[in-house]
Amino acid sequence: MTAPRVASRREQILATAATLFARHGYHGVSIAELGAAVGISGPALYRHFPGKEALLAELLVDISERLLAGGRERTEPEGGAVPEPREVLAALVDFQLAFALREPELIVVQDRDLDNLGENDRRRVRRLQRTYVEIWVDTLCRLRPGLDRERARSAAHAGFGLLNSTPHSGSHSAPDEVAPLLRAMALASFEVL
Question: Which domains does the chain have, with CATH numbers?
């Protein structure tokens, strides 16, 4: 039996920053508070990140890259056969829902603090997000031939709104209790297209 993987100091800082930024906002968390939360001095954080903005950028770029990679994995053909669009859509919903339930603090940070990134990082996050959305749009258009791409894009964003609502719901339900409901609602919402 292998021992559980221990998070690196850098990973601990990122996870703690996501939690604190979600709770207090980017501007509501000082380097000293962040350092104290991970058991080091504020200035010691500079050994891991050049500054608080770089930390925020890594959080938001990383999650955008992971979402895009996961979306691509779910749409690529297995063994040469192109997956059915309904199966791809279900896989995309499951993937987004798993992210929303596993890392709700990143949804809050993304919604509230994206504008605190420098211009280049903000553009990079937006570009990654648009590419991820287009995976959903392509899937919806395959599912409903003739569907207008703008309508499909609106539907994809509405689906994200539903799936990503978990950190804003105020619900204290366990993820395994709320996941089936959110999944069913999201899939049903795409049936009306």
Answer: 52-191 (1.10.357.10)
